[in-house]
Structures are given as C-alpha cells and as structure tokens.
From TrEMBL:
Residues 192-215 are annotated as: Disordered. It comes from the Bacteria. Pfam families: adh_short_C2. The keyword Nucleus does not apply. Gene3D superfamilies: NAD(P)-binding Rossmann-like Domain. This is Oxidoreductase. Residues 3-187 form the Ketoreductase domain.
Length: 252
C-alpha cells in the first residue's frame, strides 16, 4: 500500500529536504507552506500524481482546517502514515525582554506549538486509518539550552517537546509521537531559488561538533525515516546535533 507523509513548512530547509527524501523512497508527499513561491518550486520538482502542495499558515485554525480537508480529499480512502510538524519561525532572536511585544511572542508560539496542535488534531482521523502511524515534531536544541534574547523561540520549542510526550500518552498505541531536536543545521542550499546560498563554515564552526561538521537537512530527514520505522519508540526527544550539546566549551 502507498504510504503518505504530510510536511508542514515543507517548501524550504529541513521540510524541503524531508519531502524530497520521502518522495525518493516512493512515498506520496503533501507539502504545506505559507510561501507560495516555494510551493510552486516544489510542484515543479515533484510529479503531480504523487505530490500535493497546499498554501497554509499553520498557526491559523481556519487555514489548517481547509488544508486538511483538501488533503483528505486527495487521499480518498487511503491512510496518512506520518505527519511532520516542521513549520516555525527560523530566526530565534526576539530582542530584549523588556521590548518584546505580546503579539510578537505569540507569533513564535503559534508558528511552532499552536501549529503542531492544530495540524495533529486535523490529521488524527487520517492517521488512525494507518497501521504504525506517527507524528514527528521538529523542535530544537534550544529547548535544552539557550542563547541570549531567544525567549519566545525557546518557550515555543520547549512547549512543543512537552506537547510531544502528552500526545504520545494520549494517542498511543494507534499513533506514536516523537520530537527531533536539530542543532546547527545549514539550510542555505535548501531554500527557494531566490534565497538559495552556498553554506560557508569556518574550522571553528566544525570543531564545535564532535561529529566534525555542521548538520545538513538530510540528517534530519534520515532521523524522521528512522522514527517512522521505530515502532517501539514514542514520546521521545531525539537530538540531532552532531554532539554539539554534549561538548563542554570553556571560556578562554
């Protein structure tokens, strides 16, 4: 039976790499993104018979409902095997706390945590049709450690990790739910054409990682594939950071 994956924020970066990775495995792929230009590029890359692209702000309930109604129609009686809640605001920096407006705080929360709640809720009837269905939430190592002035981003990702284990307990055994915590992932070459750039890292950048290099979106896509097949793993946080968060760094 054909397997299908839905990827939010699938027009660029980790989402784009994941869409192409699973398409290469023979899966049907549905890509949600707020960026219509990025979606158009994905439509040009992937064959229409095995790919659906939907413009959607996944932090807005009405748009998520419409998007999943369209996905349901596209699937027909087929199940949804995997939902990847990848969408979020990429830039973690929000400035000094005393200048952070509530509306801006809410944008970070909605883009990651609220979006994952909305998409998982709407996807659930489709996921329950499948055997071994799963949800993978893309969190961040900033849910474990912080840099200055990243309050809203860290809170959104930390909340997403908590939502992950709450969903795993509530939706199992029919649906497994895990989160992946990427570290430094270089996405420059995985952007839409107008924003694409070649990655440049110094030796010091690479040396921060015991694995010897900065991460690639393909690393996260591979971890998602592993979680799809890891039938006894649920409610977990999988760190994909080349070992960066376990290396002690001394101030000179």
């Amino acid at each position: 039976m054909d397997r299908t994956i839905v990827i939010t924020g699938g027009g660029a970066g980790i989402g784009r790499a994941t869409a192409l990775h699973f398409h290469g495995l023979g899966w049907r792929v549905a890509v949600l993104d707020v960026d219509r230009d990025a979606l158009e590029e994905m439509s040009d890359i992937l064959p229409a018979e095995r790919c659906l692209t939907v413009a959607c702000d996944v932090g807005r309930e009405s748009q998520v409902k419409r998007a999943f109604a369209r996905i349901s129609g596209w699937l027909g009686d087929m199940p949804l095997t995997c939902l990847v809640n990848n969408a979020g605001i990429a830039d973690p920096y929000c400035g000094p706390l005393e200048k952070l407006e509530l509306d801006d705080w809410q944008r970070w929360i909605d883009a990651s945590m609220t979006a994952a709640f909305l998409c998982t809720r709407e996807a659930l009837p489709l996921l329950r049709r499948a055997e071994g269905a799963c949800v993978v939430n893309i969190s961040s190592t900033r849910s474990l450690m912080s840099e200055p002035e990243t309050f809203a981003y860290a809170a959104a990702k930390g909340g997403l990790d908590a939502l992950t284990h709450a969903l795993a307990v509530s939706l199992g055994p029919a649906v497994r739910v895990n989160s992946i915590l990427p570290g430094w992932i270089e996405t420059g070459s995985w952007q839409k054409a107008a924003e694409r750039r070649e990655p440049r890292q110094s030796a010091a950048d690479r040396q921060q990682h015991p694995a010897g290099r900065v991460g690639r979106p393909e690393d996260v896509a591979g971890a998602i594939e592993w979680l799809v097949g890891a039938g006894f793993v649920t409610g977990q946080r999988i760190v994909v950071d080349g070992g960066m968060t376990v290396r002690m760094i001394y101030v000179e």
